[in-house]
Request: fold
Amino acid sequence: MRVAAQALRQLKPVQFVIAVPVTPASVCNGLRDDGTSVVCLLTPKPLYNVGQCYDNFSQTTDVPVRELPQKASLWGPASR
Reply:
């Protein structure tokens, strides 16, 4: 994520925010120390794995992942 933020900064955006559902607090704080705006919904202690924070963390097949961009394009840019 840190490398992605560095690459994005080179494009000189007015602003960008990294948002993650679950991560260690040290990761959020480290990104903030680099000057990145970060939203972390959960920073559990201890964090053994991301799946511990979800009721259902089952694997997703390739089919719905491939269908999502197609469905999103049908909605048009106003609804994104």
Notes: The mean pLDDT is 85.
